[in-house]
Amino acid sequence: MLNIELKDGKVLEVAPGTTIAQVAEGISRRLAKEALVARFNGKLVDLNRELNEDGTLELLDASTPEGLDAYRHSSAHVMAQAVKNLFPDTRFGIGPAVKDGFYYDFDTEHVFTPEDLEKIEKEIEKIIAADIPFSCRAVSREEALEFFGEKNEEYKVELINELPDESEITMYTQGEFTDLCRGPHIPSTGKLKAMKLLNLAGAYWRGDEKNKMLQRIYGTSFPKKSELEEYLRRMEEARKRDHRRLGRELDLFTLEEEGPGFPFFLPKGMVLRNELENYMREMYAKWGYEEIRTPIILNRALWEQSGHWDHYQENMYFTRIDEADYAIKPMNCPGCMIVYRHGQHSYREMPIRYAEMGLVHRHEKSGVLHGLMRVRAFTQDDAHIFMLYSQITEEIKNVIRMVDEVYRIFGFSYNVELSTRPEKAMGDIALWDKATDDLRQALEELEIPYVVNEGDGAFYGPKIDFHLEDSIGRTWQCGTIQLDFQMPEKFDLTYIGEDGQKHRPAMIHRAIFGSIERFIGILIEHYAGAFPAWLAPVQVRVMSISENNSRYVQELTDRLKAAGIRAEADDRNEKIGYKIREAQMQKVPYMLVAGDKEMEAGAVSVRRRGEGDLGVMPSGDFLERILGEIRERQQ
RNA sequence: GCCAACAUAGCUCAGUAGGCAGAGCGUCGCCAUGGUAAGGCGGAGGUCACCAGUUCGACCCUGGUUGUUGGCUCCA
What we know:
By secondary structure, the chain is α+β, with helices and mostly antiparallel strands. The chain is 36% helix and 27% strand. Strands 16-20-21-28-25-24-22-23 form an eight-stranded mixed beta sheet. A five-stranded mixed beta sheet has the order 2-1-5-3-4, with helices on both faces. It is globular and about 85 Å long. The structure holds one RNA strand of 76 nucleotides.
């Protein structure tokens, strides 16, 4: 008999050869029904696996990440099977589970249409109804190559050839369909309860633009119909808070055909921008920064010196002035290097922190533009910090603390990535290693969880990136901290040390919003357009009940404005319900209703967005309340 | 840049067999003077993204261009 230890510590005795599914059956009917895959002695396995050694066993259902992953990966296989049935000449790429669903890449002459997705869904239903078991078979490399080679599955052959020598090669079969796959899979297709194909996309084979573009079908699947419906409903809700839609509805910004990727900020959007910049300037003062501004157009020699001419040219815009080459800046660094170089610096001044709200232009490929999130002209809340080598770790930690303080004001949660040396890097490897270690050390000393993004650094240095989520869960890089030993070298920057000699300073680039445009995009979706009072383009709308109150409404509005509040009067000849509705849809935080009653009492009736009628209060009390709220930058 | 889809009034969207272009919201005017999410009536508003082609005739069919959307690659 074998001793099988369960997750709760209970030990079962089972006969050798018993399958995991049978073990589950023995424990409870519910487990037998819901378990999808298992972890045996630390390894993920199928439920039909026979137990032939002692070990620890954990049964995984769809509530576990591994279970859900197997469920969705199996869904991908079923979709592939359906595609194979309907379009037999199709060849297969890969089909993994991803966040919120799965995809599979196909190579076929036939170009899939949205109608095809419906047909494929019907075919999927048939496969699920037939409840076909997934079976696994380990094969030799030769056998696998022969099997897929005969079917002209060039992509599978490529994958097999690249598998390391010692790896076990397995093939999974459900019915007529066999796929190269590591597994594990769920026991049978009948376990799939709620599947939906979502969209079609092109995707390069192995994510390399030099390769052929395959057709990718995205789908999702859930253990319950209700969960699928809930997911679709959530996505629909998320679309309502899409910043492109809200940007239009709230008159914040516009993108026009005349300037693809070059956003126009409307008056209300400009208020938002300015509030963010004002806030950031307060942060500059608090954290010891001095603000500078450098030119947008600078000559070719500068860009050659900085390395951008060689490393960044395809992203730059150029112009000519008096027969000489100039470039529009894609980054602020070189300008800032000149500012540093302009004067003499002593070790006593360090660290020197130069901040710049720098407008940069980058030629982004047409297909990547996305509302405010990815544009061709944007303003970075940039800063370059020059310091002694001994100050690096502490300074990086300071920046991380500052980022945290800023994100906290908006109630953001963020994730942190450490990006290391890319292939197209400048400078020597020892410096890169030192820089990367410094960044890592700062993160570890502050106990910030992070993931490493190998090869994703900038061409001049490694970086810590802060990523924020949009409404549908896509993440966007916003804050960044980059340690750069190259730029001070290239520009021969020095300071005079204690010893009276010239020394090379270390430098950090950092941005907290990242790009003000992108940050606004994220903010719009984060708040669904309902900004806290300090950010709201219109903070108060004062509404009259009838024409009698028009003058009072004007006076109130003027008084609010005089106190620095963004107030608007609405004394139009409309019913109060209509005015409320409109202010509510414009997501104005405070709506003041002023009728005869209020007018006589010198009071206002206060309605708060999201909270409703707060009752009547003296207008002075209201003023105090909102001023406090704005001053505190309350959420 | 690549794959696919889409582009009709300020916005959201109908529309046709290839034969005078439609709604709701918004806007403007008039009436109604009102109490916390839409009062009533009327008017204006369109080179159907752009350029070619096919046709007696093109918003509709074909080709191209531009832009947008979803992805891929790339990235703040």
